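User: I would dearly like some help making sense of a protein record. This is the protein in question:
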Amino acid sequence: MKFKEFRPGKRITIFFIFFATTFFLLGLWQAERGQDKSNILEEFNNNIKKSPTPFSEKSIKWDRVTVEGYWSGSKQILIDNVINSGIAGYKVLTPLQIKDTETHILVDRGWVPQGKSRDILPDIDIKKEYVKVNGILEDPELGFVLSKDLVTEKWPKVSQTKNLKVLRKAFDEELASYIIVADPTLTSSLAYMKIIPTNMTPEKHFGYAIQWFTMFAALCLMYFWLGFKKNEE
């Protein structure tokens, strides 16, 4: 019995090795990203069920904490281009001077609509009063930005990002390492928006991984088919 020889040729082999390796590695990367997002969601969902603990230097992202202090309403920041129920608006970040310290923490008090004109900012005034804030700690990523001018000059400032590394440049005061998203039970809270801990669900990452692995498998089949087909010719 004579077996067909496998001779795909040098060019086809180089093509196969390059793209097969690329597709396989992309599939692995998306699968790892999906697992990472699953871990983040699990940690987040577990934390939001816990009772708040006092904010401290040991507090980490997604911890549910409580912090007390005074509002610094003269230096608030509006996060631009936040859509809520199909309506454009802003997230409002208000500094809170932590009790018995010089450190401030930015409190996400919620969402306000944009209004009829972008030239007129919404009224977000707040009294300098002593409050206790419960909420979830977050450390937003910078994300995709198109400009270097991310924060306006005058207070209240309008920012294109919620990233703390960018926002810190607007303050002379020392800021804590996280933003606290206040519970909707806060007296001075605005429209509450549910926290989305990841910008893409694990299911989407796993879906992309399946696509890359499918392309890898299809390429393998084509490579072997061409190798035997070419030998027949």
Q: What stands out?
A: The beta strands are 53-54, 64-71, 77-84, 87-98, 104-113, 130-138, 157-159, 175-182.
